[in-house]
Structure formats: C-alpha cells, structure tokens
Design brief:
- It is a single chain.
- The protein has one helix at residues 2-14; strands spanning 84-88, 94-104, 109-115, 123-129, 140-141.
- By secondary structure, it is mostly beta strands.
- It has a domain at 84-141.
- Strand 1 (84-88) and strand 2 (94-104) form a beta hairpin.
- The mean pLDDT is 75.
Length: 146
C-alpha cells in the first residue's frame, strides 16, 4: 500500500498544470478615427494647386572685413607681431612702426605702434591698419630694401 501512494505522488509532480483557456469576449469595434495625413478622395484633391511661396528672408548684414582688392588667398608671408614696417602718414612721411597684433593675416590688417620724431609725443598707436604694396596714406608696407 505504501508503494501505491508513492507512485501516485510521482504522477502529480510530472503532470503539467494546464490553466483554463479564456475565450475572447465579443467587444464591439470602434469606428476608425480619420487620420489627418490620409488622402481624401474628393474633386478638390485633383485640382491644380498653386505652390506655396516661402516668405522672403532678409539678408544678414556682416561687417566688412577688408576690401576684396586687398585680401589675398594665403596669409601674407612674414606677417608677425614684433615685425618692423613703415607707416605712411597724411603728410606722406614713412615712419617706422612695430606690428603689435595681427588682426587679419589674409588682408594684412594689424595694430601698429608708430615711432614719431615729434618732441611732444614719440609713440603713436594705430588700430586696424591695412596693408598695401603700393604706398598709400594711412596704410603700412614692408620696409624697402636699402
């Protein structure tokens, strides 16, 4: 009798427990919601539409860097801070100057410290001075070879 009970327990452990399967309940379906991106078949769909024009953009104003005729495609060779150059005054004098800062190496725009021979003021500072290979008033150029 003990053996029968033992066998009966083994059968219960090996049997798989099956849950009852629920049947789906009949639920009424809702009507589909029309999507905004669906095409509607109507005569208006086939009508020729005029293209929508985008509003005109205002051009962005950028400050001028240097005149295009003075700018180069490559940086000016030998243009470094501390270099001695000539500055042309309104009277046409060529005064020695030292480049203190290079602002635009392509157009040759620099800040200069110009040495003057006046008794009252021996040093003048000029900012945003442009380079020209032709002698021009208010510009700087490299010192001519002696």
């Amino acid at each position: 009798m003990q053996e029968e009970k033992f066998e009966h327990k083994e059968k219960k452990e090996t049997e798989e427990v099956k849950a009852p399967v629920e049947k789906p309940v009949n639920v009424p379906r809702k009507a589909p919601v029309p999507a905004t991106n669906r095409l509607v078949r109507s005569p208006a769909r086939f009508a020729v539409k005029e293209p929508v024009k985008a509003p005109a953009k205002k051009p962005v104003k950028t400050p001028p860097k240097a005149p295009a005729k003075f700018a180069t495609k490559a940086p000016i060779k030998g243009l470094t801070a501390g270099r001695m150059v000539h500055y042309v005054t309104k009277q046409g004098e060529h005064l020695p100057g030292i480049i203190t800062r290079v602002l635009d190496p392509f157009a040759g725009i620099v800040n200069l410290q110009v040495l003057t021979n006046d008794g009252a003021q021996n040093v003048m500072f000029y900012g945003n001075v442009r380079y020209t290979h032709i002698v021009d008033v208010g510009c700087w150029h490299f010192i001519e070879p002696a």
